[in-house]
Amino acid sequence: MKKLIIALVTLLPTMAMAAGGNVHLEQANIDLTDKASLERGLDSFQKYCSGCHSTKYQRYERVATDLGISLDDMRTKYIHNGAKVGELMTNSIPQKEAAKWFGATPPDLTLAARVRGEDWLYTYLKGFYKDTSRPFGVNNSIFPSVGMPHVMQELQGIQEQVCSEDEQGHKTCKLTEAKGGTLSAEEYDQTVRDITGFLVYSGDPVRLERESLGWYVLGFLFIFFIISYFLKKEYWRDVH
């Protein structure tokens, strides 16, 4: 519990900087039963995100068990920092130096989906656009002045933001089609959805189990209600 409180205290101030109130959020439509998608998300997260971000309240071994990955595959395919399979999923980036490089220490992302929601994460990962005024040459449509580089730019390519104003002075911005990426728009969308799904799973690993158990509890309460009703009728039959 103490670690979770620390994670929230650390993550909330950073994530709260993202306004995004006037930006339409795209629906991620995450399916936590699709383990193939979650495994692809783990793979992409380890390749493109884990260099700076951690999911330090998850263990490699637990992830392997939940996603149906053998421990040997977890060691050889998804652990890139020399960690043991039973260790927490931390990273090795120096905190002080990272704060200088990016303006703030990259937050742990274990609870990111629970703090911001899956649709926000999905839209955020698709929302990078060219902005030469920023240190890394990119900005984000729902996280203005973001300090993070677009680590998957080689996959998506480069898109630009085009803004216009109506007669009342209301500003509307939209992103152009990305160009120069190694993936098609549909393939990149799926990659982003896979990563988002993995982070949704990381924030609540027992979600499916809890939801399944909930139906059993509701079923028990329903049956108990019926039994209680007939018991009540039996006990009060002579009174009425």
UniProtKB/TrEMBL annotation:
Name the record gives this protein: Cytochrome c1
Signal peptide: 1-18
Residue ranges occupied by any Cytochrome c domain in the UniProt entry: 36-203
UniProt GO molecular function: electron transfer activity; heme binding; metal ion binding
Species of provenance: Parashewanella spongiae
Subcellular location: Membrane
Lineage per the UniProt record: Bacteria, Pseudomonadati, Pseudomonadota, Gammaproteobacteria, Alteromonadales
Highest taxon of source: Bacteria
Keyword Metal-binding recorded: yes
Cofactor mode of binding and number, as noted: Binds 1 heme c group covalently per subunit.
Necessary cofactors: heme c
Residues binding heme c, per UniProt: C49, C52, H53
GO cellular component, one term: membrane
Transmembrane segments: 213-231
PROSITE patterns listed in its UniProt record: CYTC (PS51007)
Alphabetized UniProt keyword annotations: Heme, Iron, Membrane, Metal-binding, Signal, Transmembrane, Transmembrane helix
Main location (coarse class): membrane
Statement: the UniProt record of this protein carries the keyword Membrane: yes
